[in-house]
Write a structure and sequence with these properties.
This protein is mainly alpha-helical and 206 residues long. Helix content is 62%, strand content 2%. It has helices at residues 6-19, 25-32, 41-59, 73-79, 91-125, 132-152, 161-184, and strands at 191-192, 199-200. Helix 3 (41-59) crosses helix 4 (73-79) and helix 3 (41-59) packs across helix 5. It is flat.
Length: 206
């Protein structure tokens, strides 16, 4: 996304607008429900599920109801009487309801560390031909995690295994990049050789 030029965005927009003409009618019918969220049963069900997760976590602070505990009839009907049982449809409320505030804190900390690791990798590998693979890979993982958080705001897949694999991979990459930078004396920031006009590692003081 960062490397996409303005022309690229214009081309993408130019392709998207005509493509909307070929979308099925039920797509636009579904979009129109956003105008009145209260009448949308799916959206209202999510609000009820979020309220159940929050209510249970607060009443049983700092613990949760266990995996899928807030989806049980006993728990859901207690905090949302007369409402149909719904999944949380949010990785954040799902984690809160299942594992309480302790679990939510660990989950958010894991995501924070993952994004910080990806930024550290990109800082040390930017402009370095030997670490170009780390710069590109960490950028794509960072984008994947961003999409995971964005999509997860409306879906229940907090325990998606690929997310944990990617966060672990970033930790390994960070150690490898920092160890190589320490051995060769590199620091954050890479310079351009004035003599050769090519990218080369230089010592940059902070």
């Amino acid at each position: 996304m960062r490397g996409m030029s303005r022309t690229g965005w214009l081309v993408a927009a130019g392709l998207l607008i005509p493509a909307m003409q070929f979308m099925p009618e039920n797509y636009f019918s579904r979009i129109n429900t956003i105008q009145d969220a209260q009448s949308d049963g799916s959206f209202q069900g999510r609000l009820d599920a979020w309220g159940v997760a929050w209510g249970y976590a607060v009443d049983h602070f700092p613990f949760g109801a266990g995996f899928h505990g807030c989806q049980t009839i006993q728990v859901f009907s207690h905090y949302a009487p007369g409402k149909e049982t719904h999944a949380a449809h949010s990785i954040f409320f799902q984690t809160l309801g299942d594992n309480g505030f302790i679990g939510l804190f660990i989950f958010l900390a894991l995501l924070f560390v993952a994004f910080r690791n990806s930024m550290t990798i990109r800082k040390y590998s930017k402009g370095n031909p030997e670490l170009g693979w780390a710069y590109d890979l960490s950028g794509m993982i960072q984008l994947s995690l961003f999409v995971y958080c964005l999509g997860g705001s409306a879906l229940s897949f907090a325990y998606y295994d690929n997310m944990f694999i990617l966060t672990g991979l970033l930790s390994v990459m960070r150690e490898q990049v920092l160890s190589q930078a320490k051995i060769k004396g590199w620091r954050k920031g890479m310079g351009r050789s004035q003599d050769q006009g090519a990218l080369s590692p230089t010592l940059v003081t902070e």
